Amino acid sequence: MNSSNRLLYFIITGAGFGLLAGWFFGESMSSVAWLGTLFLNALKMLVVPLVVSSLIVGVAGLGDVTKMGKTGAITILYYMATTAVSVALGLVFVNLLQPGVGVVMQGEAPEAAHAKKDTSFIDVILSVVSPNLIQSMANMEILPLIVFSLAFGGVLTTLGDRGMRVIAFFETVNEAVMKMVHLVLYLAPLGIFGLVASKLGAAGGGDAFFNELLKIGKFAVTVLLALGVHAFVVLPLILYKVTRRNPWMYMKNAVEALATAFSTASSSATLPVTMECAEEKNRVSKRMAQFVLPIGATVNMDGTALYEAVAAMFIAQMVGVALDPIQQMVIFLTATLAAVGAAGIPEAGLVTMVMVLQSVGLPLEGIGMLLAIDWFLDRCRTTVNVWGDSVGAAVVDHLETKYVEGG
Ligand code: ASP
Prior knowledge:
mainly alpha; Proton glutamate symport protein; 19 helices; globular
């Protein structure tokens, strides 16, 4: 067994033991939380230098502006198309299974949801440009960093030799950070164990978790089924049809990223691992991985979009509001946008869901119903988000070689 396979098995074992320990030993597992925190902090430490250097080098690697435009268009098209399919899938399942019918609504909307109530579309546009880059870095606000790095990398390519020297500098930064990611991955088995065990433990262990799940069992089943079809049927089909790669091999090579996504519930924190898996194991060209993955981690969220649509319909069914096809179309559009607006951090989707609920006049209190179990469903949708990004890297890489590079 080579060392990368060995690491993979250690990671799966770590996650498995984490589940068992959290399930049976409950809250006492808070004693291993620090292992998870150490791993998570090490990943977060690398995110900002990785995003900035990857995008500067990635944009520079694309060469001229027309190529950047075409590659950008392919990337956005992939993100939009797959997100739309996932929302549509969610709507089909929620209409078929009707998980909210007969459920009594309880709970209150979380604070953060009320705070989000007055956020307008203009606020979303304003959040894309940061008045203070250092502050954005400190707060891990990735979207403004993406915009800055794309613009900075683009401008560097117009400065001739002097620009090339700066690009070469960032190339070395990027290479060094990727090596550090490699090292941090050795922490992954224990880190993932700590994260999973302590979180499940904090939820009261297996029995308490199971009881919470049963309360909104049908909703959870609907979400998981739709996520499952998207992850195991739709995305593999797209991957196979476009690139002729074996989807199961591709998935196996992405397991470290998927397990990290599940244990951290954060696409942004997982980004270093997603990039490592795509570049080193799945052999996606560095150029494309550097461009597609950092943007995907913040913008492309298939799992979140699906979840938001299913949740909004669930709330509508719970309060007995029948939504007609036009209103469902509104949910379809706002869920897609809300997922784009959601940051790649834990439970961000729950907050941006306010947009979806408000668009069709549903009560925000409905979110209260989902709170108790969101930590779990968040992990599942984050895993699908990261899987969607990973597939996107191979798909865009292939299409770029065929249509942009090849002329
Ligand atoms: N936690 C998710 C992510 O980082 C976002 C969400 O809450 O759906 O991808």
